[in-house]
Here is the input.
Amino acid sequence: GSEMCIRDSGTEEQTLSAKYVMGSITLMYADASMDDDDASGTDYDGRHMGVSFAVNDDLTISYDISKADKSSATVDEESSSLQASYTMGSMKLSGYQTDTDNPGWDSDAKSDEVTELALNFSF
Here is the structure.
């Protein structure tokens, strides 16, 4: 898909994405940008790629990476994430681990790691 938006504030935003499904594998790519028309304004560019694999009807595993560029920063913010979900009857167990380097486009910032597990029941 593609989307373009021009705002009154003098910024132009654009998002391009593509998704390809082949059996139990899904590939996804997205590219987004926000351009500030002001010469001293900040521009942002981001790319996201992901793959998911449905092992069977109950178990899905996915992995994605993203990279965000800020025109006023000397480093890019980079993230990677691994996710899994398992469904059995009315129960769903899901979790993810995400690692981010240069959070907030700050090379001095400590890398950010988040891990979460969730158990949901449907009644």
